[in-house]
Amino acid sequence: VSTQSTGKVTQTMPSTLWLLMGLVLLVRADQVHSDQLISQFLAMSGHAGFDWDPSLNVTTQLRYMLYFPGDSAFGYEMLYDTLDCQGARITARSVPGSRDSNNLRRMVLGSCGWQNVAVEHVYGCDPFTIPVRMTLAGTTHQFNLTVNPPGFAFASWESPDLIIHSEVIQWQNEPVIVLTISDSKEDACFHALDQRCHTALSSGQALRCSLCADEHAVELGANGCTSGGAWKHVVEYWCSCGQQCGGAPPNNTSGAIAQSLGAH
User: Could you tell me which of 114, 38, 46 has the C-alpha nearest to residue 69?
Assistant: First the structure.
């Protein structure tokens, strides 16, 4: 079941202040995403996540999808209630991928929009920034998503442990912002595994991949694979998840791996 919430939204112009120690990605609607799992999720739940009852009088400003590659526990909260724009309110809804399929469990899609604001006045509230609080791999982070419809967004963050890749895809001729969010330490571990055991990893044979990882344990350990739960949540997971990985690996570093691990 989709969820809905309401809150106030503040108009926040992009500022170089929040770029300090941060990273920014400008996303354009002409970029193409090839992950068929995302296409499957949109086909199954796009209407539930993006369509509004006309009686609510909502003008959609953002359609988004979040993807958290890997196996670490995650959670997120978009802090709409902390914001305000000329007294206007924002309404939001989201749909977890686990509602449709276990293989979509690492994905969430949703949308938000101004409620009870005349269309001719909507763009007077743009661009606006949504703070997003999230937990990933046991760590709490916050990033800002500045939205400037149609089809543009900026993601900014300060934590060196957070990696966000952004792009825009099309759903029924409407832009959907896709954010792939991962932990930099887990990414480094995966990339080391890919470099040392690429053939075994892309073979889809769990035992072969695990044996290769054990053989290169020292090198993988030097890249953080033996710290915290990385060996379990990265090495063991990507070696064994087969067609149930829930999406492509971090940053989709290898097309062969992505295809083998269920991104099709």
Answer: 38
Q: Determine the Cα–Cα distance for residues 67 and 204; give it in Å rounded to an integer.
A: 22
The residue-averaged pLDDT of 169-177 equals 88
46, 171 Cβ separation under 8 angstroms: yes
For the segment 106-146, what is each residue's pLDDT rounded down to a tens digit? 999 999 887 776 666 666 677 888 899 998 888 899 999 88
- Concatenated DSSP letters for 28-85? -TT-----HHHHHHHHHHHHHHH---GGG-EEEEEEEEEE--SSS-EEEEE-GGG--B
Please tell me the predicted confidence (pLDDT) of residue 195. 94
pTM: 0.78
Q: Residue 221: in which H helix or E strand, if any? A: helix 217-222
> Residue 177's beta-bridge partner residues?
64, 168
Q: For residue 207, what pLDDT band results from cuts at 50, 70 and 90?
A: very high
Single-letter amino acid, residue 137: A
CA distance 264 to 262: 5
Q: What is the gyration radius of the CA atoms in the chain, in angstroms?
A: 19
- How remote is the C-alpha of 70 from its chain's centroid? 12
